[in-house]
UniProtKB/TrEMBL annotation:
SUPFAM superfamilies in the record: LmbE-like
Xref: Gene3D superfamilies: LmbE-like
Protein known as: Lmbe-related protein
Species: Actinokineospora spheciospongiae
Matching Pfam families: PIG-L
Length: 241
């Protein structure tokens, strides 16, 4: 399968679903990561172009850890909107990568860019499947299975599916460690080490499903309906209701 995860900023995907992506890669599937903004607000000071360049290098190093294909749309950090331009740009990513599974941010996550990324991901599906909407690649012939990633700090609706990432947690942290500038910034501004943060969140989700560590997801409710859980690694026993 082709598995694509989309996030608003460099490191969003790694925090919330890197362990699941690692499981897909270990099973032989192709993985893509799409980052919608350039992350140029991700520092307490400095030149925005320099910050964006640093974050791009970090995103590339992270993707290289598991051999994921990286797509960078380069929208300005803090000003991500579900606009015609962003829909068309992401529709082209969908057409080029042709995912069987798509992970998107939760529509109610705390950051406005995260909420916009969620809308862009879902609202671009129809464009990607519409032959009359021209982009550089042909229209997709089937919609991917879609899952919303968890929210930060587990705030919001309860998840429906859990993926055991106990054996993938170390590699997930390696991916997060590639985003060094962000961890340095969070330590200074919030007193948070997000390697520790991500570990705690994974441990809590693991506690809920009886594993050492897990990531959690929800399936959006829209037509056409897909079998929720049938495309997630190790979740065929969790049912489809």
């Amino acid at each position: 399968m082709n598995v694509l995860a989309v996030g608003a900023h460099p490191d969003d995907v790694e925090i919330l679903c890197a362990g699941t992506l690692i499981r897909y890669r270990r099973a032989g599937h192709s993985v893509g990561i799409c980052v919608l903004t350039n992350g140029d607000l991700g520092a307490p000071d400095g030149d925005k172009a320099t910050i964006a360049a640093v974050r791009e290098r970090e995103a590339r190093r992270s993707a290289e850890v598991i051999g994921a294909r990286l797509f960078l749309l380069g929208e300005p950090d803090g000003f991500l909107f579900d606009s015609p331009g962003t829909r068309i740009a992401f529709a082209e990513v969908l057409r080029e990568f042709r995912p069987d599974v798509l992970f998107a941010p939760d529509p109610n996550d705390y950051h406005p860019d995260h909420r916009a990324a969620s809308a862009i991901a879902l609202n671009s599906l129809v464009l990607a499947a519409s032959p009359l909407q021209r982009t550089g690649s042909p229209a997709i012939d089937a919609l991917p299975a879609v899952y919303h990633m968890d929210t930060l700090a587990l705030v919001g609706a309860a998840p429906q599916r859990w993926v055991d990432i106990s054996d993938a947690l170390g590699t997930k942290l390696d991916m997060l460690a590639a985003h060094r500038s962000q961890n340095d910034w969070l330590r200074c501004t919030d007193g948070v080490d997000y390697l520790d943060y991500a570990t705690k969140q994974a441990r809590l989700r693991g506690l809920q499903c009886g594993t050492a560590a897990a990531e959690a997801f929800r399936a959006p409710e829209f037509f056409p309906i897909h079998r929720a859980g049938s495309t997630l690694p190790g979740l065929d026993d969790q049912g489809d209701d």
